Amino acid sequence: MKRYNPTEIEKKWQDIWESDNRYQAKNSANDKFYISCMFPYPSGAGMHAGHAFEHAIVDAVARFWRAHGKEVLNPMGWDSFGLPAENYAIKTGTAPSVSTKQNIANFTRQLKRMGASIDWSREINTSDPEYYRWTQWIFTKLFEKGLAYQKTANQWWCPVDKTVLANEQVENGRCWRCDSEVFKKPMKQWFFKITDYADSLLAELPDLNWPEKIKTAQENWIGRSEGAEIDFEVVGMNDKIKVFSTRPDTIFGATFIVLAPENEIISSLTNDKTRETVDSYIAESLKKSEVERMSEGRDKTGVFTGSYVINPASGEKIPIWVADYVLGGYGTGAVMAVPAHDERDFEFAEKFDLPIVEVVERPENSKESLPYSGEGVLVNSGSFNGKKSSDIREDLMRWMEEGGIGKPKTTYKMRDWLVSRQRYWGAPIPIIHCEDHGAVVVPENQLPVLLPEVENYAPTGEGSVLSTQESWVNVECPTCGKPAKRETDTMDGYACSSWYLLRYTDPHNNQKAWDSDIVNHWAPLDMYVGGDHAVAHLLYVRFWTHVFNDMGLVDFKEPVSRLVYHGYINAEDGTKMSKSKGNVVDPLEVIDQGYGADTLRTFELFLGPIDENSNWSSTGIGGVYRFLNRVWTLVDEFLQIEDLPTGDSEELAKIQNITIKKVTNDIRRLSFNTAIAALMEYTNQLYKLKTNGFTSQWRQPLEDLIQMIAPFAPHMAAEMWQSMGNGDNLDKTPWPKWDESKMQTSTMTVIVQVNGKLRAKLQVAAEASKEEIEAMALADEHVKSFIGDGGVKKIIYVPGKLVNIVA
């Protein structure tokens, strides 16, 4: 017998697949399937078992649909800009371009060792000038459309990475990458105007075939609110404070105003007595993350500015406070506090002994005490007294507009996308600053703006390393030819990863970012697989595609038809795999231990549902290896028999067709663990039937087994397929089909009970009638001994399953 040797088999087939370029997708194909994993960052640590899990999912799906006649596009690329390579350069002096190239080579080697059926001819790399040239071109188009702009504002600053961070990159007051505490400071930065597309992004969400938790996360992040913008006149000043409220019907109950610490009007509201206290409070507030400021149950803090406004509805003079539970980026950065009907306002009013005026009467059956946030009859509300709050909103808005008090307003929690980074290793922003013409885009024929080679990669703390490169910075204005300076910030890495799914379809085009006909053929993606970036990347890639659709560059708004969001594979103790913890499982080590890539892939997909977290198991992988060995041995034993007798087995045909149906449907719904379990059970049943000897009928059931195991263990499957005399292109062989008629047998087993206890099992014809089955049960000698002389009271028959005789 030929022993199963993963090392020998996998190397053989990886060489064959690479030499014949069989996974290169043809643009001319009609029946296409486009699948991709999320862009990997090629870190120096290489892939771990969690990364291998994602690639195993993608490859199983790709191989499955190839077998169904689809032309599958399964590309690969590298999200290679970013801080890790730059920090490594600062530490070692190795240029980011050099270390990145080495890391990519390592990742590529790992993926090829896993047998991933990737179209390597479409490989892209964000730090390749031929790629970021088009990222820069897209920036210029956004700028021309008014969707890229520069402004000064308080931004999150990471003191370790020495760069600003977007709100999405601050987690619990810490940098998402280095985990150091961050704070805010005023800086002039570039933004993409994603807020212009808030409604468009929301409108498309319900119809997306995405996990509900991801759609909910995006909906909450965008945070659309409808209400009113109301003007409050500042006492003794000509200024007005605009507030946004989703409950303008409670305006008569507003007893104070609260400003966010970021609100610029605060400085004009303080006086000699309050200025020092207010400034100190603001400074402390800006060190806190929004998550911390908004957390429930947190003790409310705030300071009085010393100024007042007039409530435009009640005419009362009410104080202006500053409190960090109000966010500067939401609404106007100011709220009218109605403590009787808002939990946070109520807590604040109680702490600082501020008035609480009830203006919405609680229903008699209400169990809520103050604050009451529901609907009800208005009280203490002037001419609106006695009317239901839910009925008067239109009248109230009309009254506000006629009086010049306020107007309807829709606001969003989402802020514009901060895209500037003060670091070297990123795509340079293609802007030139001219004293006469301001910000001017770099002409298309001068793109890409190449990163200059530098000797010291350490950031200055204010600008990037680029700001120190005078010969690179000092240029002529494209408009007037006068001396000007390049923009020295680089783009957030998310910019380069917001359009790579389109570039995959036309990766070598040097005339434009992509050919629209090619993109429209392949995209939107049929399936996108990942386990991160529920908001940031997935929101950005949607935003850019909506813009491209408006520009006529693509025929679709949404880039991804179906999103598959998988769980994590954690360490054996349930903790997250981390190099610092020393609990990372290297896929190549598993492969080289003798298990092979097929065992690794099959084991990871067998661990559990892919949308749930699983734990690595050093013992469990051995069980999967033994299963693959059993399949190998079964096929090999069949091949050892030279003269197979003819034969026909209904049971063999039954389990063959039942398994094909289950595995096919399980893979379609990405239930890989149950599909593999079905293949294990099928193998067990084949071993039981093998005791009766192989016949010529066994060839097809075994070939079906080989084909069904191919998405999980492609190397072993290809070797067995070839051994069966079927050539070397299992990939394009049509997937097995099941026959419903062969899933039924000519006989069935019926249980016979007497007074509820099992007394016999009958093998009866599948078409036997109720009367025939009952007669057979009563005639059984063993059954008759339990009925005795008392006779039968009644017979209960469950069709096809049991007869219960009540004696």
Give an overview in words:
Helix 1 (6-20) packs across helix 23, helix 18 (587-606) packs across helix 19 and helix 22 runs antiparallel to helix 23 (714-723). The longest helix is centred in the last third of the chain and has 21 residues, at 620-640. The strands form ten sheets. Strands 10, 11, 12, 13, 14, 15 and 18 form a seven-stranded mixed sheet that branches. Strands 2-1-26-27 form a four-stranded parallel sheet, covered by helices on one side. Strands 6-5-9-19 form a four-stranded antiparallel sheet. By secondary structure, the chain is an alpha+beta fold. The chain contains 25 helices and 33 strands. The chain is globular, with a radius of gyration of 34 Å. Helices cover 35% and strands 19% of the residues.
SSE order and pairing:
Layout: H1 6-20, E1 32-37, H2 49-66, E2 71-73, E3 77-78, H3 83-92, H4 96-113, E4 124-125, H5 129-144, E5 148-158, E6 163-165, E7 170-171, E8 174-175, E9 183-192, H6 198-204, H7 212-222, E10 224-234, E11 240-245, E12 256-259, H8 266-269, H9 275-285, H10 290-294, E13 303-310, E14 317-322, E15 334-337, H11 343-352, E16 360-361, E17 377-378, H12 393-402, E18 406-412, E19 417-418, E20 420-421, E21 431-434, E22 438-441, H13 470-473, E23 474-476, E24 483-486, E25 490-491, H14 493-496, H15 500-503, H16 516-522, E26 527-530, H17 536-550, E27 563-565, E28 569-570, H18 587-606, E29 614-615, H19 620-640, H20 650-668, H21 672-690, H22 699-709, H23 714-723, E30 747-754, E31 757-765, H24 770-779, H25 781-787, E32 794-798, E33 802-806
Parallel strand pairs: 1-2, 1-26, 3-4, 12-14, 26-27, 28-29, 30-33
Antiparallel strand pairs: 5-6, 5-9, 7-8, 9-19, 10-11, 10-13, 10-18, 12-15, 13-14, 16-17, 20-25, 21-22, 21-24, 23-24, 30-31, 32-33
Helix pairs in contact: 1-23, 2-18, 3-4, 18-19, 19-21, 19-22, 20-21, 20-22, 22-23
